[in-house]
Amino acid sequence: MSYKFIDLFAGIGGFRTGFEENKYHCVFSSEIDEHARQMYQANYNDEVFNDITQIDEKIIPNHDVLLAGFPCQPFSIAGEKKGFNDTRGTLFFDIERILKEKNPKAIVLENVKHFKSHDKGNTLKVVLNALENIGYTTSWKVLNAKDFGVAQNRERTIIIGSLNGVKFDFNKLTLKKPTYIKDILEEDDGQVEYLEENEYTLIQNPKKQPSGLIFVGYRNKKIRTKGTRPDTIHLSRVHKQPNRIYSSEGTHPTLSSQESAGRYFVLHKGKVRKLTLKECYRLMGFDDSFKLLGSKAKLYNRVGNSIVIPMVEEIALQLKIQILDKTDKIIRCKKPLIQRSLFDF
Asked: What share of the chain is helix, strand, coil (3-state, %, to 5)?
């Protein structure tokens, strides 16, 4: 059965792609960033509404699932006055008012890993309380993209709620075998940027971390001196992420929404190279046919702000199995049987 969904804070459509792969149908999208809207419209040939705070919830089509990778905002000001039970003044309030009006069967929310501890745990508490107060049974877990066949160590907090009283079981998600950076690299046709040997320093005996990362060295950028290792002027433990180099035999660290220059460097076949834009989009699960519009800086921002598609696909599949199909079955069972006798004719 095909279920309808709405895509809030839609970005470039990572949520949408993952759900459409499982035969869901999008009936409404909203995104405030102009460049993200342009890419969304180009790839999905669909209208994207602007600022969700300015949209009347009554005009939003009825739907089965609400999807939202909503921004993380502090609830501390409201919490000081209302005991962390009020969402007014935050973007989550807009999700809440739509839920109250449309009563979708399920909701899937996504945020950064540290959302669970944001504002000393009060933000997560507010969100869960708000959902439960309007009838949703909730569960949440921090998931990692690398567990879904993506060569990126990217952890995200996922919250799932249902109206049928079923608690989503994250343990039923099917995990995939690890993939590595080398699996998503393009053939070098002259567009790949390489560093000269005097531009970086490699370390001896690099070790594979539990995350799958294999840190192998730094670019020679003397940004900070605190923590510099003996006999080197560059190898500081506090060097920023854009100057670190990782092996293509492992996974890649989280792509950042703040990295507009695409400074992601890997050691591959004895050479240090920069990831291409296409490779960055592959690390998020986007197909090579996905249209990339605008400047490189904006495109790096967009991909770093997206959600990993293979992870979404598995969530969408299990949402049908665990919640949506069960909801429809319950509704069908509750319909009264019409019995007639000969006296009815």
From this structure: 35, 20, 45
Fold topology of 4-176+307-334: Rossmann fold (3.40.50)
195 vs 259: CA distance, rounded Å: 19
End-to-end CA distance of the chain: 36
26 classed as catalytic: no
Q: Exactly one of 26, 72, 280, 333 is catalytic; which is it?
A: 72
Tell me the pTM.
0.88
CATH 3.40.50.150: which residues of the chain? 4-176+307-334
Domain at 187-275, CATH homologous superfamily? DNA Methylase, subunit A, domain 2 (3.90.120.10)
What are the pLDDT tens digits along the chain (345 aa)?
Answer: 789 999 999 999 999 999 999 999 999 999 999 999 999 999 999 999 999 999 999 999 999 999 999 876 655 444 444 444 556 567 888 999 999 999 999 999 999 898 888 878 888 888 999 999 999 999 999 999 999 999 999 999 999 999 999 999 999 999 999 999 999 999 988 889 999 999 999 999 999 999 999 999 989 876 666 666 666 655 555 456 788 999 999 999 999 988 899 999 999 999 999 999 999 999 999 999 999 999 999 999 999 999 999 999 999 999 999 999 986 665 444 444 444 343 333
CA–CA distance, 142 with 116 (Å, rounded to integer): 8
